[in-house]
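Worked problem 6 (solution included).
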Amino acid sequence: MSKQAHYNKYKRDKEAKKFYNSSAWKKCRAVVLARDNHLCQECLRKKRITPADMVHHIIEYKADLSKALDIDNLESLCNPCHNGEHPDRGSKKDVKVSKKVRVLTSKANEEMWE
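Solution. The predicted structure is:
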C-alpha cells in the first residue's frame, strides 16, 4: 500500500475524504492542472520542469472552507513538493534521524566476560 493510500485510508478524516471524492473537487482540480500546464509550480520557481501529481491548497481547505474550491488558492505540485508542504503526512523533510547506536551493558554481561 502506498503512503498516499495509507494516509487516505487510515488518517484522512471522513469529511476530507468526502470532499476530495466530490465531483466539484475533481472538476476544480482538473481546471487547476490545466491552468498550470500539468507542471509543478514549486519546481518551476526553482527553474525545474516536473510533472504535477497533486493540486495543493495554499491555505488549507479546513482552515478556510470558503477557499476550498478557489482556484487562486490552489496550485499544482509534484508529489515530493507536496510532501514538503506537509511534513506531518509522511515527508522526511524536517525529520532528524540519529545514526548513533546506543549500547547497553548490564552486570550479567560484565560478569560473563571476566
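Discussion: The two ends are 50 Å apart (CA to CA).
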